[in-house]
Amino acid sequence: MQIAKNSVVVIDYTLTDDNGDVVDSSAGGEPLAYIQGIGQIIPGLENALEGKSAGDEVSVKIPPAEGYGDYNEGLIQVVPREMFQGVDTIEPGMQFHAQTSQGIQAITVTQVEGDDITIDGNHPLAGKNLNFAVTIKDVREATGEELDHGHVHGPGGHQH
To answer: Which of 22, 25, 46, 155 has its CB surrounded by the most CB atoms within 10 Å?
Structure first.
């Protein structure tokens, strides 16, 4: 079976940056299971896997526009420490979830200067090429229940 919209796809993958450093990998863990065509993985990888079959190996470089987007300087801002009520220690690298006009957004603290906290709302991989080496382990039709729930059930997926 070929990968198409609403198929369950199970992959092993390694993601590297342009320097060849591993950013993420399924090696040593469970493969990734997702439903094709419903936005569970980045668009560039989903497009690269479309039409492939179990056993295929794919190496692809995904540009920022098809990954986590371009880096947006407008998502960097300085906020007062009081915005972090209940957090005693704030250090660069810490991540939080913030309620924004676009919904819940992950932010990363990049600098702390007294009561001024610089935060960055960009995804950590925004503005970067994403280099994937993928092995397709399995492809099957999603069940009606999986499509209704919006996730894969069983091995590699959600357990009910």
So the answer is: 46
Is the whole model's pTM more than 0.85, yes or no?
Answer: no
* 44-53 residue pLDDT tens: 999 999 999 9
Q: How many Cβ atoms sit within 10 Å of the Cβ of residue 136?
A: 20
Q: Which domains does the chain have, with CATH numbers?
A: 7-68+126-149 (3.10.50.40), 73-120 (2.40.10.330)
Rounded Cα distance between 146 and 56, Å, is 24
Report the distance separating Cα 33 and Cα 151, nearest Å: 9
Give residues with Cβ within 8 angstroms of 152, minimum separation 6: 8, 33, 34, 35, 142, 146, 158
Count CB-CB contacts under 10 A for residue 40.
Answer: 15
Across the range 151-158, mean pLDDT stands at: 73
